[in-house]
User: Which sequence fits this backbone?
């Protein structure tokens, strides 16, 4: 590659990487485990990637952990434009609404569109795979995305379950069923720990 | 695996993952790109993993990007006990001091020691590989760890270069030489952009 075309490519790569920095300023409903402040979506994405490394033995046979990690690294970037939509907000209806999905698709156009075309297509495709939650890799990635806030709530004394007055049935349908789909033994073990918050 | 031994293993996996959450409270000298606050080491680790995904074409032939990402996800965990030691602090002498290295080794014993033995050995080994900075994967990972604060300083108007009164020669020896070792074309391109801060 010539120095000039290399420079043009690097400009596009860093336009994206510098824009991605803004994910560190998107706040989630969940707090840190010590309850000291709300978690941001950048550090959340790091924690999930670490979850994938450490909980790889909970994935179904054939799940590619490196692809799961790649997916988790980019899964929340659209929140730079759209913000985080808490799973328990608006009585559980906002998270997967048509409006939210359309806004996220426009955000993906803009943010992944900063990249050189090959990287744009690659990262956009893996983000769409995550959103569709149909492949084994995406199903496992979604399980981790759902279980990490549960662990934070367990540590912080209830967290968003109290904020949003969540019931055991809502936890099961909005969260547990998604964890169980990709990591059934994991949800069985975690659910046991949630019981004391849902009496 | 029996349900009981699976539960014991999960306890150890989550002892580590919950402890890792504390990395989000370790503050670095560098600020976010918008200068609004100091960056923490958890979100920094996410950003570096994204750097590895997006700048893979800057790595030497044979570098395994999935291993680089794994390395970057765990590279700063010892800071939970030791804190971040800024590269330009104490006139550039604190970062690689014998005292810092000994403290980081004890931190690695404790933190990776929370994991089941197989994961402890695997993640401890990849952390040591990063620290030694001798393999192609580790050399590239180090390049990214050095270039990301440069990009933040460029965005935020000088950042830690001003805080620590860094000279062009110090930037070259403490930062540029490390970036160039793993990603020579990248440093050539980035150095050009730093010139206006070092007149």
Assistant:
């Amino acid at each position: 590659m010539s120095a000039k075309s290399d420079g043009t490519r690097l400009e596009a790569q860093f336009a994206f990487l510098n824009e991605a920095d803004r994910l560190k300023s998107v706040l989630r409903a969940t707090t840190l485990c010590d309850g000291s402040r709300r978690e941001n979506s950048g550090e959340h994405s790091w924690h999930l990637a670490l979850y994938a490394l450490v909980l790889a033995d909970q994935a179904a046979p054939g799940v590619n952990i490196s692809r799961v990690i790649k997916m988790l690294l980019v899964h929340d970037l659209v929140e730079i434009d759209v913000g985080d939509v808490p799973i328990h907000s608006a009585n559980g209806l906002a998270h997967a609404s048509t409006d939210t999905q359309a806004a996220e698709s426009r955000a993906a156009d803009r943010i992944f569109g900063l990249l050189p075309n090959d990287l744009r297509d690659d990262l956009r495709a893996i983000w769409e795979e995550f959103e569709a939650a149909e492949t084994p890799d995406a199903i496992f990635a979604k399980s981790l995305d759902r279980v990490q806030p549960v662990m934070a709530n367990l540590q912080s004394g209830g967290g968003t379950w109290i904020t949003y007055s969540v019931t055991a049935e809502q936890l099961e349908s909005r969260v547990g069923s998604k964890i169980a789909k990709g990591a059934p033994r994991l949800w069985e073990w975690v659910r046991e720990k949630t019981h004391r918050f849902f009496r």
User: Anything to note?
Assistant: The longest strand of chain A covers residues 27-31. The mean pLDDT of chain A is 94.
